[in-house]
Design a protein that fits this description.
The protein is of the alpha+beta class. Helices cover 20% and strands 29% of the residues. It contains four helices and seven strands, in the order ββαβαββααββ. A hairpin with a 5-residue loop joins strand 6 (165-166) and strand 7.
């Protein structure tokens, strides 16, 4: 085997706790505006507790930043965007958002992370975390939030397609009274 130089001074990667659904005090680490599509892509990291720096460690070990959320400012989403901005302003004394997305970077925010199932490219059902709701840091610290139950792939798909009957493997089958063309 090839000898590794300076082996004594290399820090080993220790097991890192798995992030689970819950409320987290986070810091906004990056923001990108997609002006034409009217949304902000926001990157965050956990800023307190045992999982502090979770996404930075993930990035350093895997080259992937997992802490992301989208906030649309389209006409139909303005109320949700306002709630997000209010949570940021209320979590950061003296901060006022003045429509410069770059000023969001470095600010604190409370996030409730939940789990959902999804169908992977290989057809298997897997779980992932998503941002369920945005809260103030104070709400998170006081446990003033609820963690929703796991969103299952099957039940989520069916609840969005209530007026459709399902055939094999839960693919929608159109239910019409039209005469068949043959």
């Amino acid at each position: 085997m090839k000898r590794i130089q300076d082996f004594k001074n290399i820090k080993p990667i220790n097991e890192y706790p798995k992030i689970i659904p819950g409320g987290y005090v986070c810091r906004i680490t990056g923001v990108k505006d997609y002006f034409e599509k009217e949304y902000l892509k926001i990157e965050y990291d956990i800023a307190e507790g045992e999982l502090r720096g979770y996404y930075l460690h993930l990035f350093q070990s895997k080259g992937f930043w997992g802490g992301k959320l989208i906030r649309s400012y389209k006409e139909s989403a303005k109320r949700f965007f306002k709630a997000f901005i209010n949570a940021v302003e209320d979590s950061n004394e003296g901060y006022h958002f003045d429509f410069d997305e770059n000023t969001l970077v470095g600010n604190w925010i409370g996030l409730v992370l939940a789990e959902e199932e999804y169908k992977a490219m290989d057809g298997t059902i897997k779980k992932r975390l998503y941002v369920h709701s945005v809260k103030t840091v104070e709400d998170i610290r006081k446990s003033n939030f609820t963690i929703p139950e796991l969103k299952t792939y099957q039940s989520e798909y069916m609840s969005q397609n209530k007026n459709v009957t399902y055939g094999y493997d839960f693919y929608p089958v159109e239910d019409t009274d039209d005469d068949l063309p043959f």
